[in-house]
Amino acid sequence: MGRFVFIGFLFLAVLPAFSQEMLSVSDSVVLDEIVSYGSLRKYQAGSKIESIGSEAFLLTKGDDLEQLLSKTLPIAFKTDAGGLSTIRIRGTGSGHTSVNFGGIDLNSLTLGQSNFSNVPVYLFDNVGVQFGSASSVNGSGSIGGAVHLGLDHNWTEGFRAEARLSNGSFGEQLYGTKLFAGNGKFESVTRAYYYYKTNNFSFLNTTYRDFENGIFEKEDVQRNASLEHYGVLQELNYRLEPGEYFFANVWLEHDWRQNQQNMQTNLNNPDYVEEYLDEHVRVWAGYKNHKNRLKYEVNGGYVSDNAVNNGNSTDTIRTRRWIAEAILEHGFSVNTSYKIGTKVMRINPMVYAYESSLDHENRMDIYASFFQRILNTISATVNLRQGFVSNYKVPFTPSVGASWLALSEENWVLNFTGNISRSYRVPTFNDRFWVPGGNPDLKPEKGMSYELGSRWDYCNKSLSGNIKVNVFQLNIDDWILWKNGGSFWYAENVQNVVSQGIEFMTGWKFNLFNLPFASGLNYTFTSTQRVKSLNQTNSLKRQMEYVPLHSGNFFLNTSWNKLIVGVDGTYTGEQYTDEDDKNVLEPYFLLNANALYEFKINAKNKVLLSGMIQNILNTSYQSGWGYAMPGTSYRVNVTYQFN
Amino acid sequence: MKNKFNLLLLIPITVGLFSCTKNDPVPEEVEPAVSYIINYGDYAGAKSTITAFYKETGTVFNNYYQNVNDVALVSNIQHAFTYNGKIYMLGNNPDELLWVDAETFSQTENGVSADIVKPRFGVGYGNYLYITCWGGDIWADESLSYIAKYNISGKTVEKKILLPGGPEGMAIANNKLYAALNYKDSVAIVDLGNDQVSYIETPAVTSYFVKDKQENLYVSLVSTYSDYSENTGLGYINTSSDEYEGTYQLDGVSTSYVNILSANTDFSKIYVMTSAYDANWNLSGAIAIFDVASKSFEPNNLVENLSGLNGVGWYNHQVFTFIAESVTSNGTAQTYQPDGAFIDEFETGKAPFIMLTAE
């Protein structure tokens, strides 16, 4: 299998080179999408910031965020069959990547992480990912990276609408709608969806034990792993004039799941059900004035996160946040600008296991960013950020970065980038205040990130694309774990981790047999090792758990008239699941295919028919120890668009 | 490798066959040559493993169950006990009762899951096993718990003896079944003739028992998050009168499960696992010593400042302490002389916690 994957990757990598002479004319170039929330790139020279291309976004609208990112970027996830998935950028932990919706970090304040299965791609227009430490821009939690969920401002004139129906294997259903109404100045955008999946897939259960007949595996069906998500995202935008507008976004989200049981419980206790419900209210609104060189904006938000474990609403697990932010940006010239800002937050935790005296926590960040372009070839940035948390000390987080346009020829350009940044994560509320075991005196987790990158862009009449190579080192100190205390578990700063690696990304558009193709290939080598631990362990200087040393993915799409077809695949290398060397997950390769056809009824009405086959090879694999994953599955979608 | 391992398995059997003759006097109770350490494993990952410890050679075999049976355990063993030539194990996630031959550790029959929900502890009596079960989320509904009365020959749970309050450890004494209640300041007594339940009030919630030579019981008194108490330590129950006769105070008795108490062979000492925060806010464990003759705790612990202390056991005239700072890495067993002198340390599976010595 490994050889097959390697040959496949090699084929896709060299395909553009061979195809160059045969291509017909193509005037398209690869353009990155712009994440609408914040000028991510300008003030973070040298940082690796990737956004998902529009084709990939179009074909994966029915996916959740984990499915989208794992297919398109070199990012590892630990996941079960759709109920819970957590991110591991560059070998970091699940709580080391912030997920940002405007100025709101979606990460739970109690658990410190986001469930990427609970973020529907359907509600958003674009997604951007910053690799590496980003605390100097995003604050606490962005040690491994940051994910940004973006919405485009369309300034709709008139009315547009979309309705989507999806049906797939294992009882999967998605119903969605998007309604755009406006007069060019005022705009209302409503996005709503409902998703349900019975998730009753078949698999080979290797935990079956029939000692009397000597049989130790059995065909089984996953039970009690249903999912139900629904949500509404309402935008109200009012443009006073170009560059000056008010906006308000309200996102209500309801995510219910039956916790997937491991294979042995599924088999032996088939009626066993555990439920988990997440309910979120997220409001982000503001005023932006970007008309002049002196730009400013004022934003505010409110977040309510409520969780109900197994129907027990008596044991409250709820936090509320009120956020205010002000940003001032001044461009002296096109070559020089700075930005300063402040963000304040009041957090009201209401968790049954916290001391009742814990009423609230205040947080404030002040930050400054400086941008300088030199000789039109070098961009340099400096970011400084200091956070303040009531009764808690957090570190100063600076970052410096630069990008250098080293060579520029008629058909290609070569850039080099570099970035050094410091990052941190305030321990979660559970880490500090859970009774028993929480420790208010925990130190923040601290990260130090070093990165060098190069990017080669090529464009001629028939071929365009780029090759990007980044090398990184990320040191994380005071990583918090919960330790066995004999009577109960308690949080402690336990280990230091060093993660270093190489990321290779390439994407090309080309014509072949008179057909336009878009392709992408990503590979990442991530060596993440525990270098120091207070715990007794045999796995010092060994690859960390659930971080594959090798992983990668590819996609290849083409279109013919109104038909788009594509294949994509992901390879995940062997993973340790704990500190015992024998408990490893085998490597696996997943191949998917998709197609989309556009029926144009008339100038105003069209229907998109699309379909997807996932895990075509019916690969049997696990992403979390003991949890079954589905084999081959399908999904068909019908999307009606008006205007 | 496998063949060598099988040969080693024959050692204790061979020793047993040739070590006595008809003319020898009836021997006193002799410890078996091998004892087993139950490693709980990771609830969300790889499950329990068994470590075999041979006292004569000090040899340790990890993954013993898997080596004997060719397949791994698929549940987290919450409790294991020996009865009538078998070792019974109660698994969580999935919930099940399984058993192996006490001599060979070979499993030849299928386990049982029906009517065993979140099992905690088991004892054997006659043709029955009595298994305490939480029955569900006991922390949310204390009425869910029960004792499953399992018919050994019928291989079914014959009856559920409803017992609210989270029954945990059990002991059989004077033909009665005593169950410690982890959510109620009491010990329950089940009449084994008619399964009727009565209670003895205790000054704190209780967790486990050790039985003395007179069939009276010492019970651990613990303070839990849901039922705080300052009256922690050991309680003493006279099983003839079913009177609670006294409390022997000890701070910080561990609220951990199963192996927090262990008595030595002649029942002169009871070793009690405790835990407390140190000056650096680290929770560390200690082994306190209860002197049965004087009915008091000795002023000095046998050993203390053990990070990740997960259980205590007695075997081969040594105190075994089990260390598991996490459930993601293998733990260790540390052995001590009765005077506290350190003897040895060896690696176990993940989260070792029970020392099981077969009958």
Oligomer: heterodimer
Q: Assign a percent range to the helix content of chain B.
A: under 10%
CA-CA gap between termini of chain B = 29 Å
CATH fourth-tier homologous superfamily of chain A = TonB-dependent receptor, beta-barrel domain
Shape of chain B: globular
CATH topology of chain A: Maltoporin, Chain A
Strand count, sense and closure of the main sheet of chain B? 5 strands, antiparallel
How many strands in all of chain B?
28
Task: Report the top-level CATH class of chain A.
Answer: Mainly Beta
Output the keywords.
heterodimer; A: 643 residues; mainly beta; Maltoporin, Chain A; globular; B: mainly beta; Methylamine Dehydrogenase, Chain H; four-stranded antiparallel sheet; 28 strands; 6% helix; 48% strand; disordered N terminus
Explain what the structure shows.
The complex is a heterodimer of chains A (643) and B (359). With 643 residues, chain A is mainly β. Chain A contains six helices and 33 strands. Chain A has one domain (2-561): TonB-dependent receptor, beta-barrel domain (Maltoporin, Chain A, Beta Barrel), CATH 2.40.170.20. In chain A, the strands form five sheets. Chain A has a 22-stranded antiparallel beta barrel. In chain A, strands 1-6-7-4-5 form a five-stranded mixed β-sheet, with no helix packed on it. In chain A, strands 2-3 form a two-stranded antiparallel sheet. With 359 residues, chain B is mainly beta. Helix content of chain B is 6%, strand content 48%. Chain B has two helices and 28 strands. Chain B has helices spanning 2-18, 64-69; strands spanning 34-39, 49-54, 59-61, 76-83, 86-92, 96-101, 119-125, 128-133, 146-151, 156-162, 167-173, 176-181, 186-191, 197-201, 205-211, 217-222, 233-238, 243-249, 261-263, 269-277, 283-291, 296-297, 303-307, 309-315, 318-323, 330-336, 342-350, 352-356. In chain B, strands 19, 20, 21, 22 and 23 form a five-stranded antiparallel β-sheet that branches. In chain B, strands 3-2-1-28 form a four-stranded antiparallel β-sheet. Chain B starts with a helix and ends with a strand. At the A-B interface, helix 5, strand 17 and strand 24 of A face strand 20, strand 21 and strand 27 of B.
